[in-house]
C-alpha cells in the first residue's frame, strides 16, 4: 500500500514545477454511515478517518483533486431513533478504502500568490471507488463474512472552507457526503446471489456515508499565468 501512495503523489508532482501551483497533504477526521443498519443522523462521526490528497490548481477558481481515505463504517441499531431498529438490534463494522477524483470549485478567487488571499468556501465533486468486504446477516441477526470484497461506485458531494495559514500551507475544514450505487456496505444486501433470501431494508435506497474533517496541504510552484485557462 505504501507504494500506491508514492505513485499517487508522484503522479501529481510534475517534472517542471514552474508552470502551475500544486498541493499535497493529509486528511484527518471521522466517518458515519447512513443506510439500513444503525442511526440515520446525517452528520455524526463515530469512526476515525485519515488519508492523503493532491491538487492541481488550474485557476484561482478551480482545481483538479484526488485523494485516498481509509476508515471504518459502523452502524448500531441501538443508536437509532427508530423503535423498529432498536428492537432488531443489528450491528455492523466494515473497513473501507476510498479512492476519489474530481474537481474543486471555490466561491471566490483563491490565488495563493496574491498577498490578500485569505479564505473561501468551496465545493468538490467527482467520482469515488470504495473497496469494502462483503457481509450478510443471518435470520438470527448474526453478522457473517462472505469472504469476498467489492468496489462501490459513488459520487462525492463536499462543502468546505479553506484558508492560507502560512506562505505555503493551506488549512481547510469540510463535510462530505458520499452517495454510492451499492446497497451492500452494511450487509443488508448480500453480494452472493445464493444469499438473496437474507436481504432486508429499503431496496429503493442505496447506501450513503459521510466524512467530516480537516485537510492540511503544502503548496509549491511559481506564480502561474491563469489567463490561459
TrEMBL record:
Domain DUF6089: 4-228
Protein name: DUF6089 domain-containing protein
Pfam families: DUF6089
UniProt cross-references to InterPro entries, sorted A to Z: DUF6089, OMP/PagP_B-barrel
Segment forming the signal sequence: 1-19
Record key words, sorted: Signal
